[in-house]
Prior knowledge:
It contains 14 helices and no strands. The chain has 340 residues and is mainly α. The protein has a single domain, classed as ABC transporter involved in vitamin B12 uptake, BtuC (Orthogonal Bundle).
Amino acid sequence: MMQQSPQKPINSSFVLKLLISLVLFVVMFALAIMLGAKNVALTDIWSAIYNPNATGGDISIIRELRLPRETAGVLVGAALAVAGAIMQGLTRNPLADPGLMGLTAGANAALAVTFAFIPAIGYFGTMIACFIGAAFGVMLVFGIAALRKQNMSPLRMVLAGSAVSALLTALAEGISIQFKVSKNVSMWTSGGLIGTTWGQIGVIAPVILLSLIAAVFLSRQLTILSLNEGTAVGLGIKTAQVKIALYVLITLLAGASVALVGNVAFIGLMIPHLVRVFAGTDYRTTLPLSAVTGATFMVFADTLGRMINVPFETPVAAIVAMLGLPFFLFIVRKGVRSFS
């Protein structure tokens, strides 16, 4: 008898959850543009976006500083959240996160190598280097974790990721000091959105957006793989090709995020878990909601970093780490039984 898919049709409650998430996102995005060392009026935000002829001091602040900055936050938050969700589904590891699995450390190391040996490579070349570094980092982690296939546990994966991340971080710092590019590297790896330009967004945005769309198209296969690989094979899914495609998407999403704002950990760990609480484990709903929730969270963290010690800024990476570390410890304490 033909085996039936374990998935059910997406119910109407998903639409409601998505709409609520989008409303919260719009409110948070508007607040992020309004609040800062200098608060701006909501009417000025409207004019800056919808009236190209509008001019003035606040209009310039909105268009040249806050809009590109928060747009970058949206892209990075969505990219890291979806990358984390895909990693957790593929590895069936509740602790999987691009920052904990060597991807961001690999991208950072690639940045250091690029700035040291190819200083005139340009932004697009730097982005390609980040992709290569992210792929190298995750391959190292999986290579170490797979040395004993019968014991490729979530904890072993995290330990391998921690070791590889430490190695690649030390490599990046050593190269930075030796070749005197520490300042340039730190500007990328500090995890900040300040100084983001529309030109940078124009290069990175297509990569992230196309990767997010591709991830949604593969969400059905990911759901089945996350449940049981044998079931996926029985349903005719080409598991090897799907896994390769998903790992490529993870690399693109993580690499693009590092290229845009530097090293931001824990978003890919936290957001998918939070989304599963009210969306379940079907990745057809988890991935879109993770993208919206991740974008909202990243914008919130950046706004909080700008407001804690006005007029100075707290790096968004530090804010995310302060919020993410307790969550990580909670997941470790609770164990993997809640993942399914």
